[in-house]
Design goal:
Pfam families: Asparaginase, Asparaginase_C. Belongs to the asparaginase 1 family. Keywords: Hydrolase. One of its GO terms (biological process) is asparagine metabolic process. GO terms for molecular function: asparaginase activity. With 340 residues, this protein is an alpha/beta fold. The protein has two domains: 3-215, Rossmann fold, CATH 3.40.50.1170; 227-339, 3-Layer(aba) Sandwich (Rossmann fold). Helix content is 27%, strand content 21%. The strands form three sheets. Strands 1-11-10-7-6-5-4-2-3 form a nine-stranded mixed β-sheet. Strands 12-13-14-15 form a four-stranded parallel β-sheet, with helices on both faces. Helix 6 (264-275) links the parallel strand 13 (251-256) and strand 14 (279-284). The radius of gyration is 20 Å and the shape is globular.
């Protein structure tokens, strides 16, 4: 797939909703040389837009401030609010697409959740920044310009939720944060970006192939099942798993070593969790690759689910949504991971 587009006439510019949630892109520090130790989420959406006058050549903007937080503090309540607002806006004939400005820390989780629950084919694009708005060479303004450019392009329709960052366009399912400081912090390590955006041009080389948005049974919930993440490592114990069993959580995602392997002590505890009615999903703490379904041990024998190429954080998102949608047993939950 090769799709290029740019607005052809200022008389017929698309109307794009920009929803701000805070994050580094809306951060500020006292010193322009400071790229750490700033306060996130303090710059309002109007100031973000004013810093990018070139937006006027791309789209007519409708702006809303949904939240003003550091994305490390994001919770399911904000996910619900954001998803409902995006769906409502996309039902309006005068809205052609949506851009969400977000903090980088949990952007990949929000993007994947929206990719699964939104019920629209209109473009929805997340973007962020690694440097606060007050910094020298702040990356937020260009990322915002590019995100609006992608949302305004015809080629982005039907692609699910996208992430525009550092001139790359990523699928929400694939993208992860890979650096604590670099402006190219977001990558799709396993299969690469969908395309690129630069100087008003959008070039999508391929499409997302797994079902998303209108093709899924998922929706945000008024109450979310408790799903927690544990990590396996040298010398790992069963203490955390025992505590989660006692708390009667609905699911546990384990960030395993390598191909989702689990320390023997923790694995024994996780098997007991399955016996207690808790769904256990094996993911990997490794930065790329996939966790193969293992028919002998531990999956079929112990009742575990394999997360495939999803990292532990996205695996938690899918587990929460699948349990809410009624994928209640291990076979059904594995089917969800194999499908979405």
């Amino acid at each position: 797939m090769n799709t290029t587009s740019s607005p052809s006439s200022t008389a017929a510019l698309p109307r794009i909703a920009v929803l701000a949630t805070g994050g580094t892109i809306a951060g500020s520090a006292a010193d322009a040389a400071q790229t750490a130790g700033y306060q996130a989420g303090v710059v309002g959406v109007d100031r973000l837009l004013a810093a990018v006058p070139a937006l006027a050549n791309i789209a007519r903007i409708h702006a809303e401030q949904i939240a003003s937080i550091d994305s490390k503090d994001l919770d399911a309540t904000l996910w619900t609010t954001l998803a409902h607002r995006i769906d409502a806006l996309c039902l309006q004939d005068d809205i052609d697409g949506v851009v969400v400005t977000h903090g980088t820390d949990t952007l990949e989780e929000t993007a994947y959740l929206l990719h699964l629950v939104l019920k629209t084919a209109k473009p929805v694009v997340l973007t962020a920044a690694m440097r606060p708005s007050s910094a020298l060479s702040a990356d937020g303004p260009l990322n915002l310009l590019n995100a609006v450019t992608v949302a305004a392009s015809t080629g982005a329709h039907g692609q699910g939720v996208l992430v525009a960052f550092n001139n790359r366009i990523h699928c929400a399912r694939d993208v992860v944060k890979t650096s604590t400081y670099a402006v190219d912090a977001f990558q799709s390590p396993e299969i690469g970006a969908l395309g690129w955006v630069q100087d008003g041009r959008v070039d999508l080389q391929r499409s997302a192939v797994r079902p998303h948005t209108t093709a899924t049974p998922f929706a945000v919930a008024s109450t979310w099942p408790a799903v927690e993440i544990v990590t396996s490592y040298a010398g790992a114990s069963r203490l955390t798993v025992d505590a989660l069993i006692a708390a009667r959580v609905a699911g546990i995602v384990v960030a395993g070593t390598g191909n989702g392997s689990i320390h023997a002590s923790m694995q024994a505890a996780l098997a007991e969790a399955v016996s207690a009615g808790i769904q256990v999903v094996r993911a990997s703490r490794v930065g790329s690759g996939h966790v193969m379904h293992n028919g002998a041990a531990p999956d079929d024998r112990l009742g575990f689910v394999s997360a495939g190429a999803l990292n532990p954080y996205k695996a938690r998102v899918l587990t929460m949504l699948a349990l809410t949608a009624g994928f209640a047993d291990r076979v059904a939950l594995q089917r969800a991971f194999d499908t979405y």
